[in-house]
């Protein structure tokens, strides 16, 4: 690199910056610094509070073409067959896609005092009541008593069942700041950290395998429970496989005034209205069903602080962990990296515009990320934070894993302009890619005349950075994991007639009016989908029970063909699905094979474009 003397150490996952400079602090410089520091005190407080927002109308939204607008009158976001508008402008048009929507009447949410944090970043405020096994597959779930309104009025739902496989940590009594994640660690209420090789629930508490052996801890004596670490990109693929297996729905995340964070998709979203006046926003409820929840979660529209939307192949960079951060801030005062806020903890802004996500840094700071093979490019806007006014002086670089410069910005002075990296291509790197985002302080002789003498106001905002993924590789990875999100198929070998053997999508189950929620149905690729496995038959009463059903709006008859060993196949017609009154299962008798091991084949035939089946459970008796 021409302008930075860089030593790149691939083992350190980042670029170590060594920049020499010398500055003589004469009286003029000292007075200048004092003036800047005095101004910065005011700027910092304004930046922390998001100084312009109290003047905005109630709502602000942004679109993927860079346009945004604010408005006062929100209409029609209360029924699925209506198109919501803000001051008469459509929020979901075909010409441009909405990126985020924010309620300016709600202050920045605080971290809840007790919550469950899920892999992928979702937050569920509340406390764990118990752990239990559900269904014939004995899936482990944590039953949570939420600390927020989560159901429709008059609903009988009292808790939310959370898949334990998605739980990253349980926090029973937290400070307002997130604590550092320590995998396989218990933190007691008296401040002790207990490292464990493994954690599991046992009789209302946590059983930990430590160096001293098995130890039992009551949940009431624990402050935090940290589960094992998972790779963020692996979590993202699982998220798509569970939510949008066809990768054709936009990802949708909401954050509420109470600190709730939920990630779903636009085809697992339902607006509804309950109460007297349907036009009154207080009566609007919005349903989201994350991949980790067995139950619907309804949030009040008036409590939603921000909504964020993105395509599966263009996720926000802030969704993923920063692998390594390096600071070299000459005045010796470290401004830590902030995620989704400016470096002072306020709203991410450029000029008079808010942004939905990103990073706040102070020069000199570099951030290194690792990317999987499907990642092919990165794009971000950036600017100095409005709080610095005419001050600040930085330069931005993007480096690959070998320290090669992929992007270099001009020297940026003052906050009047927003810059765009455009799509920066990663190149043909084999295996995991490492990309480093550098904010350089431009010190010494390189600093332009008239700029701040040191790095005092070098507050940079990385604005809405996102990653572009190769859709072919992404879809291939999603399809390889789809089967694991149909628990009824656990233990069965799934085969098909060609290529990908089936398509899975979402449908709305409305049988329970008080708690409608989303389920998933399977549609085979022509002409069939087949499950196979050997079964050891116990006695003459042995049987297979198939709890399956087709969505009620499907007009096609769906048939199953079941064959045991070489016997004549049995043909079954799949009933309509009714979750409120569980219909009797389809019974496959096995008694004639008592004491033997038999091979069973269950075939779902393709009978038209809407011939879908919800596989609820398969029980072997």
Nearest-angstrom radius of gyration? Answer: 28 Å
SS-derived structural category: mainly beta
Percentage of residues in strands:
35-45%
Determine the N-to-C terminus distance: 68 Å
Give, in spatial order, the strands making up the sheet with the most strands: 12-11-10-9-13-19-14-15
Query: Spans with pLDDT under 50 lasting ≥5 residues?
Result: 1-39, 41-53
Tally of helical runs: 3
Number of strands: 49
Q: Report the average pLDDT across residues.
A: 84
Based on the model shown, name its key terms.
single chain; 621 residues; mainly beta; eight-stranded antiparallel sheet; six-stranded antiparallel sheet; globular; disordered N terminus
Short description:
The strands form 12 sheets. An 8-stranded antiparallel sheet has the order 12-11-10-9-13-19-14-15, with no helix packed on it. Strands 4-3-8-25-20-21 form a 6-stranded antiparallel sheet, with no helix packed on it. It has 3 helices and 49 strands. It is mainly beta.
């Amino acid at each position: 690199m021409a302008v930075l003397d860089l030593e790149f150490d691939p083992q350190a996952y980042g670029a170590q910056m060594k920049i020499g400079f010398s500055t003589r602090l004469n009286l003029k410089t000292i007075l200048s610094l004092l003036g800047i520091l005095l101004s910065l005190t005011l700027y910092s407080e304004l930046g922390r509070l998001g100084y312009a927002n109290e003047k905005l109308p109630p709502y602000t939204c942004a679109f993927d073409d860079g346009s945004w607008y604010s408005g006062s009158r929100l209409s029609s976001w209360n029924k699925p067959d209506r198109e919501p508008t803000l001051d008469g402008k459509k929020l979901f048009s075909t010409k441009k896609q909405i990126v985020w929507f924010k309620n300016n009447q709600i202050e920045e949410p605080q971290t809840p005092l007790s919550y469950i944090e899920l892999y992928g970043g979702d937050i569920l405020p509340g406390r764990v009541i118990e752990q239990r096994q559900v269904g014939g597959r004995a899936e482990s779930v944590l039953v949570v008593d939420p600390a927020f309104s989560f159901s429709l009025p008059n609903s009988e739902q009292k808790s939310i069942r959370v898949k334990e496989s998605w739980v990253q940590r349980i926090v029973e009594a937290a400070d307002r700041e997130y604590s550092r994640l320590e995998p396989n660690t218990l933190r007691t209420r008296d401040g002790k950290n207990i490292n464990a090789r493994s954690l599991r629930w046992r009789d209302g508490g946590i059983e930990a395998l430590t160096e001293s052996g098995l130890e039992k801890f009551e949940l009431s004596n624990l402050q935090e429970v940290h589960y094992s670490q998972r790779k963020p990109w692996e979590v993202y693929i699982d998220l798509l496989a569970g939510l949008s297996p066809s990768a054709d729905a936009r990802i949708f995340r909401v954050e509420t005034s109470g600190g709730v964070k939920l990630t779903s998709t636009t085809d697992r979203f339902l607006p509804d209205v309950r109460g007297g006046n349907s036009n009154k926003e207080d009566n609007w409820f919005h349903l989201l069903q994350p991949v980790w929840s067995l139950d619907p979660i309804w949030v009040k529209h008036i409590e939603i602080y921000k909504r964020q939307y993105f395509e599966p192949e263009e996720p926000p960079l802030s969704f993923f962990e920063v692998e390594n951060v390096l600071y070299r801030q000459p005045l010796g005062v470290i401004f830590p990296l902030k995620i989704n806020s400016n470096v002072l903890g306020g709203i991410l802004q450029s000029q008079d515009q808010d942004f939905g996500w990103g990073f706040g840094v102070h020069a000199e700071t570099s951030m290194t990320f690792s990317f999987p093979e499907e990642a092919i490019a990165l794009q971000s806007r950036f600017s100095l934070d409005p709080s610095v006014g005419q001050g600040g002086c930085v330069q931005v670089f993007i480096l690959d894993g070998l320290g090669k410069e992929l992007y270099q910005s001009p020297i940026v002075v003052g906050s009047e302009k927003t810059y765009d990296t455009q799509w920066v291509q990663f190149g043909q790197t084999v295996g995991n890619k490492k990309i480093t985002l550098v904010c350089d302080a431009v010190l010494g002789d390189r600093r332009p005349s008239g700029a701040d003498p040191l790095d005092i106001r070098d507050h940079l905002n990385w604005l809405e950075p996102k990653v572009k993924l190769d859709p072919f590789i992404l879809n291939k990875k999603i399809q390889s994991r789809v089967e694991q999100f149909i628990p009824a198929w656990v233990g069965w070998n799934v085969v098909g007639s060609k290529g990908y053997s089936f398509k899975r999508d979402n449908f709305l189950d409305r049988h329970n009016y008080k708690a409608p929620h989303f389920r998933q149905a399977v549609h085979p690729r022509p002409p069939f989908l087949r499950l196979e496995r050997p079964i050891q038959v116990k006695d003459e009463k042995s049987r297979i029970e198939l709890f399956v059903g087709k969505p009620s709006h499907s007009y096609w008859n769906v048939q199953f063909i079941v064959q045991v060993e070489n016997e004549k196949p049995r043909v079954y017609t799949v009933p309509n699905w009714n979750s409120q009154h569980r219909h009797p299962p389809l019974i496959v008798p096995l008694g004639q094979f008592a004491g033997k091991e038999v091979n069973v084949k269950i075939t779902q035939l393709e009978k038209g474009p809407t011939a879908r089946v919800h596989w609820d459970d398969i029980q072997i008796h």
